[in-house]
Automatic annotation (TrEMBL):
GO terms for biological process: aromatic amino acid family biosynthetic process; chorismate metabolic process. The chain holds residues 85 to 347 of 353 of the full protein. The keyword Transferase applies. Residues 17-256 form the DAHP synthetase I/KDSA domain. Keywords: Coiled coil, Transferase. It comes from the Bacteria. This is Chorismate mutase. The keyword Transferase applies. GO terms for molecular function: aldehyde-lyase activity; transferase activity.
Amino acid sequence: LVSRKNKPENTVVTVAGKEIGGGQPQLVAGPCAVESAEQVDAAAGAVKARGLHFLRGGAFKPRTSPYDFQGLGEEGLRLLKQAGNRHGLAVISEIVDPRDLEMAAGYLDVIQIGARNMQNFELLKEAGRTKKPILLKRGLAATIDEFIHAAEYIMVHGNDQIILCERGIRTYEKATRNTLDITAVPLLKQETHLPVMVDVTHSTGRKDLLVPAAKAALAIGADGVMAEVHPNPKQALSDASQQMNFTEFEHFVNELEKSGLYK
Ligand code: PEP
Ligand code: MN
């Protein structure tokens, strides 16, 4: 169903009147995790001020260690929605449990399925049953074929509003957090009719590579770019070293505009 052979024209996912995959690339930005009303509201203000339409923020955080901050749960979704409403932004957050999808649909404009859950088939099936657009991230060690099949699980269960997101894969290279597989973008767009985004924060894990990675993503045909921004990254409860502060975020968006690849 997701195959380009089956449907030659691009799928455009429309979220709160804004198109993803409609030709105009979209930026999605916000903190790694929702930490407080003040924190997410400040991030939303910065995102809105720079002309974006989409705010991200994790409420259910799939952390490597069980002792790390796990997110605020439903309260985090509520705070994210409140900030989105206040600033006129559509909101995106990850859901990890199929039992939470119905609840989450009351707060979110787009439901994210994270890299660690790309092959959580019960979650994919349940995501297929919701009416909300799904942002599906590529698994840490998933092939393109496995990624496409994960999207197929969602679509075969009834939801054709899917955005694919390349977020870097595991390789032997340690200079970046993951290895951004940039050719995944044109490959996925050839093989499927779905919009494709690139998460430059989790793929590189390095703030000094966000601008070139985002330019590369847009130049190679991505329909959008995701990046993390936090009012005070040093104090962030997760991914402290890779989140941009507001000055860095300004610079990031300015550079993309100057490149002519984003406006
Ligand atoms: C995220 O976007 O918050 C996240 C945890 O990303 P990933 O699933 O790609 O690691
Ligand atoms: Mn993060």
